[in-house]
Structure formats: structure tokens, C-alpha cells
Amino acid sequence: MREMSVRTVVVGSGCAGLNAADTLKALGEESLLLLTEDMNAGTSRNTGSDKQTYYKLSLSGDEGDSVGLLAHDLAYPDVNGDTALCEAAASARCFFKLCALGVPFPTNAFGEYVGYQTDHDLRRRATSAGPLTSRFMTEALERSVRSHGVPVLDHAVAARIVTGPDGVAALDVFLPQEKQMMRIRCANLILCTGGPAHIYQDRVYPESQHGMSGLAFAAGARGANLDCWQYGLASVSFRWNLSGSYQQALPRYVSVDADGTEREFLVDALGEETALAYTFLKGYQWPFDENRLNGSSRVDVLVKRETDAGRGVFLDYMHNPRGYAPERLTKEARAYLENCGALLDTPLDRLKAINGPAVRLYLDHGIDLSRELLEIRVCAQHHNGGIAVDAHWQTCVPGLYVCGEAAGTFGRRRPGGTALNSTQAGSLRAAQHAFRNGRRVSESPLEDSPLMLPEGDAAAFQKEMTRIAAFQRDASGMQQLRERVEHSLAAQKTAHPESPDFQYRLLLRDILLTQREVLSAMLYAQTEEKGAAGVLITENGTSARVPARPMPNRDLWFERVWKSFQEGRLD
């Protein structure tokens, strides 16, 4: 392999990766490289929802808010207090950077960034730049990265992290166009590779999002809360979250059997008024939540029951659900529609009144909601767990940082939209620490063995994961799948970059390594009492619950902080 040396390598070109690179450059890091499989791929650039949420410190109105209150709301019993505090403390700073870069977050006539309430949120901290908020963020951050002259290596696949006695030593990279490997010696490696979408078949992640969590696991990193996922209703021909206004417009839920017979299964199972109430609530309560099985999450269960029976499930925006009438709505639903000027004749009319861009989005992807049904499933949407990190987003492997959705800084009940704030706060912290940590590129001889990769059918593992280990989980099935995963990993064979299936086998290995850790966490969680406190840590297929790190006692006396800051002791 040919070699090059770079002090800090950032892997990934989403919101987290671009902000890490941009921050490092602004700090003065000259030995820097941003590496990506495809600059235009990934979740940040290719996903969203009805109005994609950015959750931050409240910046409007008369309701009180503070860093401490926000940190408290982020630090559930299975979330570390120090990372929650860091995400809260950096919230406003990171948000205003995005505003300065041109992300069009709306203000009222007096300049307040007015907010709204999102799921698991107690305040109106959420804001949005529309359905494509994360795309706007990515584009703005890329413009900044390009303008600052950050070197970018595109169309390169991270294949192996090489470690030495002092932690990260190098990154082995596959260059698909050349069918060659390259070694990049580095002192710091910041992984911003997104959620491990590739482990599931039914997922709302864009086709271009795979994830590379297995890369970190293979290097010795631990997982945190890997059992915690967010699942919800999404369209499948065009992958998109059907939250918010898509539900508040009160579409008709129908299933269609092999003979083409339609049935309003939601109304049949719940009754007309309850079906209307639960559909509206799915806007606020979009993620599946086992605590709402007798409420809005009953919708997810009924949708899954229909798809398991081989019937297609659809949302119909052309016709009202059976029994719809304004006077039959809950007080909350009717007030919402009135305030939006949306007490109109059809679901499509209501959706246009609430959120016109949500309709145009589907038209832009060849789907006309005024003429056709929209096929849906319950899909994996976000990993609330990930790689375990400290308050600098560094893993247990020195020099290896993980940011964005790949990092395990969330737990079971994160407020909606916290992921976008986390991409910015976590990458800021990682960049600051990597810049100042004093690590140097190793000049010692490094391992140069060929890559060992598994063989098999990735789709089969993904399909089985969806069947037995999504929002409904079967312990026996998960144990059997884990054994299959272990068998495939044990049967790895030498792989050569010239082989036509080399990149596919790299992906398969990452799927299997990640599934092994996730299944271990899920199996362990099923043996616990409901709502067990602490962070679930997983390492090499073994899981255990450990106490969450507490909220730090921080110094808030200005003169002492000022002195420490001047002496360079703080970030």
C-alpha cells in the first residue's frame, strides 16, 4: 500500500463531519483531511420530515430556559450527564454559527427564533428550516469547508482502523475507482459516519446511508445503549418520515390484499373517533413508544400486523377516513387545524394548508398525493445508541472520536431534533480536543496483514433483523440470528481489493459486526426490569448496565473561568 501522513482525518461528509473539519481548520489545524465515500451521499443531505426539527436552547418568548434545564432534559437515566451538559452548553453557539452560514431558520418580526414543541419535549425549543433542514445545514457547512480550503478525498471507503500501543495509528482506505488500498497514518481519527442503517431491511434512512459503526467496534471501541432505536411510519417508494403534518392532516389508513380489496383497518380496529384521535397524535408522537401501546403507538402495531399478513398498507390523502367530521375531532386536533386554517374538505387540502412544502416534496419525487395512495411501513429511523464516548466525544481508543448519530449520546427517550444539535455540539467538542491533545503521527512499523472479510447475503441478514429485532423483538429469534452472525464472522477469508465483490464484503463485515453488538444489547435489555437506569455498555458481544456519569459540578464563577480560559486549560 502507498502511504500518506495526516495528523487528523475526519471520515464523513454530513453535518457532523463537515463541522468537525470546518472547526479544526478555524482552530488552525493545517494537517487535516476530510475523507468521504461520496460527498453527496448520507443521511444529512438526503433525508428530512414534514418540518425537520433542530432542537436547541429556547431563544424566544417569555418562558424561562437555561443550559442547566436543557441538560437535565437531555440526561435521562440512561444518558451520561457530561455529554448532555456539553450538548446543552454548545447549543446556542452551534445554532448561531449555522444561522451565520445562511441556514434559513425563521424569526418573527422582532428577530426571535420562535420555537414549537416536539416529541418528548417539555418546552418549545424546536425550530426548523423546513423539510430539508439537515440538507441546508450540510450545504452551508460544505460551502464553509470549501472556502477554507480543507483537503477532501472523495470516493474513498474507510476499511480498517490500525491501532498501536498509544491508540489510533492509521486508517486503511479502499479506493474503488483504482481498486487499491491506501494507508493514511494519523494521530486523530474523527468518525462521523451516521447511523448504522445497513443492519435493517425496512428503514427510512436514504439509500445512500450505510453507516460504519463496525469499523469502530473492530478497533476496540465500545457501544452505548445499542438497544435503543427509534422506529416510525415512513413511505417506502420514496423514503421519508411521515410525522407531523402528514398525520395531523388526518389521512385515511387503508390496507390492500392480493385481490385488490381495500379495508380501513385502523377504523375497524379502533373505532372512528379513536382512529381520528390516534392519527392526529402520531404527528406529535411519531416514534413508536411502548408506553403508548394503548394510545398512538397502537397505530404502528396495527400497521405491522397488516404487513405481516402480506397486505400492502397505504395512506390516502384523497379521501377522508370513515367517520371524519370536524365536530368528532378531539379539542386539541380541532384547535390545531383551526389555527392553521386547515379545517378543509380533504386530507390533501388540510396538508397543503398546514405545510405546502410537504406536498411538493413528494411531487418532486414523482408521487402525486392527489392521485395515488402512499405505501408505508414501520421503519428504523434513528439509532439512539451508538459508540460510547466521553465528554470530548473520544472513545476508549485514544485518538478515536465519534460524532453525530454514530455516537451513543442518546437514550430511550431523546426529544425530537436533538440529533441535529448533537452533530454540531459533538463535532465541536471533538475538534477542539483533537486539536489540543498533543498526539503525533506514529512513525513506528504498523500491521500490514491482508483484510479478512466474510461472505454471504447481506439482504438476508437485514431482512431477519427487521423481522425479529425491530420495534417488536423476539428473544429466541434474536439469539438464533446472533449465532448466524458469529458463524459468518468466524468464517472470514482473505479479500483482495482487485476482487469485484471487495466493497460489498466490506459492507457485509460492517453489517455483521454491528448486528452482533446490537443483538447482544437487545438480548441483555430483555432480561432487565423495564426502565432500568444506567448506560448499557457492549464490548465484543457482551453487554452490561453501568451507572450513567453524573451531571458535572462545573465552575460558574466568572473570574476563575476567565483565568483558566486564558491559560488554555479549557475548551
Characteristics of this structure?
571 residues; alpha+beta; FAD/NAD(P)-binding domain; five-stranded parallel sheet; 36% helix; globular
Q: CATH topology of the largest domain, which one?
A: FAD/NAD(P)-binding domain
Which outline best applies? globular
Strand content: 15-25%
Count of the separate structural domains = 3
**What is the CA–CA distance across the termini?**
37 Å
- In which order are the strands of the major sheet placed? 13-12-17-16-14-15
The major beta sheet can be summarized as: 6 strands, antiparallel
Kindly provide the radius of gyration, computed on alpha-carbon positions and rounded to a whole number of angstroms.
Answer: 24 Å
What structural class do the secondary elements suggest? alpha+beta
Under CATH, the homologous superfamily of the largest domain reads FAD/NAD(P)-binding domain
User: What proportion of the residues is helical, as a percent range?
Assistant: 25-40%
Low-pLDDT ranges: none
CATH architecture of the largest domain: 3-Layer(bba) Sandwich
Number of strands: 23
**Average pLDDT level:** 95
Our count of helices gives 18
CATH class category of the largest domain: Alpha Beta
